[in-house]
Design a protein that fits this description.
The protein contains two helices and 34 strands. The chain has two domains: 307 residues, 3 Solenoid (Pectate Lyase C-like), CATH 2.160.20.10; 121 residues, no CATH class. Helix content is 2%, strand content 36%. The strands form six sheets. Strands 4, 5, 7, 8, 10, 11, 13, 14, 16, 18, 20, 21 and 23 form a 13-stranded parallel sheet that branches. It is globular. Helix 1 links the parallel strand 2 and strand 3. The chain is mostly beta strands. The longest helix has 6 residues.
């Protein structure tokens, strides 16, 4: 008997549910340290620095909640023994677009006494297991011909997550320097090397990149083959005000530099070469500059630099952040796609039962308002995209279903055949929960109702996966 599991995906389109406050973050949680620039909130402090000074060096989770306002200060968060969340007040936590908390500074390497890039940063994070939500972090120093390094964020420890944040600067906006980091549904602005660092493995998920001057988006400083640093920008959107052919995707700060742009929109601000050298001396033999299925006027590959190339398959998030990262504190339970990837056929195209071969496939079902179901068969092609049009705001439900193997009877081939599909609904899908998976095709510790597949099953919400 075939074991079948069903996952229900429910999409609440923007404006459909009046008065839905599920995604508001307007009230501090119990025990949170509250920051209020006006000082009117009971038991609050007026600066973020004062809130940081109230943190306890214990293993317990702690939260700083920041009320609306502009906070002109440099925020330094030292190493803590336990996890930390910093939440900005917002009416919609799923995006940076409704942020009302701004932390701003204007320090640079031209500031007397500052001798390191980190020292210029508006926010300096030196603690692990930290999550930031809905904060605008800015360095307003601007452009300089020399010593123009002026950071908005300095991320100096592992397990740091940034969700619905905005980072603005000109040179060296984000210092993604150490450990594992994730940036989701955020805004990043700059001109010169504005995503840079030496040792971080950083995943950028659906970030909006705004180029404001000629230069280079990334400057990864991986310096040796055993350095695990890797920047992956997945489904990013690269636009800007710098004019056509004004920026490169990256240049190698060190000779083992490693960066991938995949499934991203590249506007005409991106130069046809795509990638740049650092100087005329540095070797390019070990540079890893790759792209995968980017699109837009800046994505044409015909004139790309000869030390870059195209991938035949995308980089997977688990290969960058680890197979178990989703269960860890710093990984938010909420990501915010406008293109939900449904990895809905991570089984072989055929398998054998008592010498008989059966074909199995996944089906994507769209429920219309009149209860008529339209079914789209997802074929065995890793690049298949199933498009579901949204003509007007209305509740939609998607059902992905298929057959899971009964491990008593089925034999797996050595080479798996995968497929995947995507549901495109504009900007209306606003939340995603990811089911933990890996490539070993075994039942995970949660028991037989939790299957490990090849990639995340990415859905708005999901019911239990029942095997029968």
């Amino acid at each position: 008997m075939l074991a079948r599991f069903t996952i229900l995906l429910t999409c609440a389109l923007q404006g459909v549910v009046a008065g839905d406050k599920k995604h508001e973050r307007t009230t501090p949680g119990r025990g949170a340290i509250v920051v209020d620039t006006s000082g009117s909130h009971p038991d609050s402090v007026t600066t973020i620095g004062a809130a940081v000074s109230k943190l306890q060096n214990s293993t317990a989770a702690q939260t700083i909640f920041i009320l609306p306002g502009t906070y002109t200060e440099q925020v330094y968060v030292p190493s803590l023994s336990g996890p930390l969340t910093i939440q900005g007040y917002t009416s919609d936590s799923r995006s940076y677009q409704d942020n009302v908390v701004t932390i701003t500074g204007n320090l640079s390497r031209q500031t007397p006494g500052l001798t390191s890039n980190d020292a210029t940063s508006t926010v300096r994070l030196w603690t692990s297991n930290v999550k930031l939500y809905n904060l605008n972090i800015a360095n307003t120093f601007g452009q300089a011909n020399t010593n123009g390094q002026a950071l908005a964020l300095s991320a100096q420890k592992t397990n740091q997550g940034f969700y619905g944040c905005s980072f603005t600067g000109y040179q060296d906006t984000i210092y993604a320097n150490e450990g594992r980091q994730i940036y989701a549904r955020s805004f990043i602005e700059g001109a010169t090397d504005f995503i840079f660092g030496l040792r971080a493995s950083a995943w950028f998920e659906r970030v909006d990149i705004n180029v404001i001057g000629p230069g280079f988006i990334t400057a990864n400083g991986r310096d040796a083959a055993n350095n695990t640093s890797f920047y992956v920008l997945n489904k990013a959107r690269v636009t800007g005000t710098s004019g056509p052919n004004s920026t490169y995707l990256g240049r190698p700060w060190r000779q083992f530099s490693r960066v991938v742009f995949q499934r991203s929109y590249l506007s005409d601000v991106v130069k046809p070469e795509g990638w740049s050298v650092w100087d005329a001396v540095q070797s390019l033999a070990n540079v890893f500059y790759k792209e995968y299925k980017n699109y837009g006027p800046g994505a044409a590959t015909g004139a790309r630099a000869n030390f870059s190339s195209q991938l035949t398959a995308p980089i997977k998030i688990h290969d960058i952040l680890g197979i178990r990262f989703e269960s860890e504190y710093w990984k938010s339970a909420v990501s915010i796609p406008n293109l939900v990837t449904l990895h809905i056929a991570n089984f072989p195209a055929s398998y054998t039962l008592e010498e008989l071969t059966e074909q199995r496939y996944w089906t994507l079902v769209k429920e219309h308002a009149n209860d008529i179901f339209q079914t789209t068969r997802v074929v065995y092609d890793p690049d298949t995209v199933a498009l579901v049009e949204v003509l007007k705001p209305r509740p939609l439900r998607y059902l992905a279903f298929g057959s899971a193997p009964n491990r008593t009877f089925y034999q797996w081939p050595t080479q798996m055949v995968y497929t995947q599909g995507e549901v495109r609904v504009g900007d209306e899908i606003r939340e995603m929960v990811t089911v933990e998976v890996d490539r070993t095709y075994r039942e995970r510790e949660g028991g037989p109702n939790s299957w490990l597949l090849d990639e995340p099953l990415s859905f708005m919400s999901w019911s239990s996966m029942d095997l029968d």
